[in-house]
Design goal:
Blueprint: H1 3-11, H2 20-23, H3 30-43, E1 51-53, H4 59-69, H5 83-91, H6 95-114, H7 124-137, H8 147-151, H9 157-162, E2 163-166, E3 169-172, H10 190-198, H11 209-213, H12 235-255, E4 266-268, H13 280-290, H14 298-309, H15 324-337, H16 350-363, H17 374-379, H18 386-399, H19 402-419, H20 422-425, H21 429-441, H22 450-453, H23 455-471, H24 473-476, H25 481-508, H26 513-527, E5 532-536, E6 544-548, H27 555-563, H28 568-574, E7 578-584, E8 587-591, H29 598-604, E9 609-614
Parallel strand pairs: 5-9
Antiparallel strand pairs: 1-4, 2-3, 5-6, 7-8, 7-9
Helix pairs in contact: 1-3, 3-21, 4-6, 6-12, 10-12, 12-18, 12-25, 14-16, 21-23
Amino acid sequence: MNQQCSTKVSEKPPFDRSSSQDSLDEESMEDYWTELENIEKSSENRQEQEVVVVKEPDEGELEEEWLKEAGLSNLFGESAGDPQESMVFLATLTRTQAAAVQKRVETVSQTFRKKNKQHQIPDVRDIFAQQRESKDEAPDGTGLQSDRTNENKYKGRDEQASNLVIGEEKLFLPEDAPASETDINLEVSFAEQAVGQKESAKEKTQKSIDDNAQLPNFRLPKDKTGTTRIGDLAPQDMKKVCRLALIELTALYDVLGVELKQQKAVKIKMKDSGLFGVPLTVLIEQDQRKVPGTRIPLIFQKLISRIEEGGLGTEGLLRIPGAAVRIKNLCQELEAKFYEGTFNWESVKQHDAASLLKLFIRELPQPLLSVEYLKAFQAVQSLPTKKQQLQALNLLVILLPDVNRDTLKALLEFLQRVIDNKEKNKMTVMNVAMVMAPNLFMCHAFGLKSSEQREFVMAAGTANTMHLLIKNQKLLWTIPKFIVNQVRKQNTENHKKDKKAMKKLLKKMAYDREKYEKQDKNANDADVPQGVIRVQAPHLSKVSMAIQLTEELKASDVLARFLSQESGVAQTLKKGEVFLYEVGGNIGERCLDDDTYMKDLYQLNPNAEWVIKSKPL
């Protein structure tokens, strides 16, 4: 930590924690400054990691990298990837998403022209003109707005809220669409919602700690086609989700006038083994050799379990540090004995384990919130409303690498368990947020320079963001329905291309195409009567069952019918271990939540197959 932080801590008056009420005081920032002071002391004897600062990339290079991550590298002459697939992808973008892409393409194009690079970059107007042409050929597709529609696109905020335009398609929200300020609408693009709310937004950019003490309890209204969570989709669809999430996040920041820059200016020489100061990917590789299927570092899991063994009611848990010398010795001992299984965990006091947990997070050579998106997480505090901040965090969580996301989830779940015991440990959600914020956001290599910090704003902002992460963690692991629908649209368009190619092939092979299609249709119709789905369960006693669709039939009902066919012991074992999946049609593969209404989902994806199986590790 820089000397300026240390000086600020020493200038503050001592804080009396003798009263329980004082320790519950949510307006005080003392926990934050005290944590910074503790970090400073614990770092005195730690060996500094070697940091190599490389050339700061120019704006064109950053935007080029952005387009690559968004899967649109072939827009500026890259040979990798199918250009036609990119055109399908572009055709599914919302109005604000398309504007975000257009802005980056223009920046890259201008940069290359200045450098006289001979990349064949199409004019951005030509790129999106192709979408309009394809719309004339296929009226049911999704594309960009016509110019005439654009002229009138922001008429009336109330009309905008209930009749949003996605490409050329109008999404009429259902009658029970979220109306409350605390309801999170996942059916319409966040950036599109922000356009409608922008003029009427009255909240200030920065919120006081007192405002955050009354942070609303945001909720997700029920979706009859089921809520999609991270981990529910097949990898090929999740890849599309991540690309769309990046574009949507950028569009949201653009609409709200907040700069979004990915951090790529620092490289660190990293350890290739050990526990502390080791990249998460290396830790997982080490751990999976010991415990196959491990998704969260074993040392991280063990430190949490050790803290919980001491009881979560301990006053000042996470706030009171262990002795710096003892922590250093424990680190060295863990490095030598952890994987050998000879480390004596009984010797680790509860506050020491908490200090080690925070040290583990701080010592990561790349931030838990990732190098690429740490600044974007920090910038969340600049968004005008709490709902928009939560929407941005949702997209950022989706964008995290798997191991970072899994580890963050385990951390937030643990922090919530600490808060659940606040009556005993005197650690409210804001106390915990203030203590943890410096450990996640003030990364030694990637934090803001002291001259740029504006410490109090930084402290309040990151503590507020930490508060949002903890309190709304269940919402953050949800994939917005509008993004899933965009993926469905992409898959549908790609299937159409494949079908056209197959028809041409059949024609060349002299098949009677009309007869082939008729036979194929008759075969499908004969297998399952209308209004009935056939569910496959290859690993259960009853491997197949035809089920009549009704208005009230849920995924949980389908599972119950199959599990009732199992023996008593097997039935108990299967509960929570097998799930109903939607497979094929306009989705690769999707695990359904128990409250999915099957008839509604069937209408959304009539060509899907329905399979009961366990989730992969």
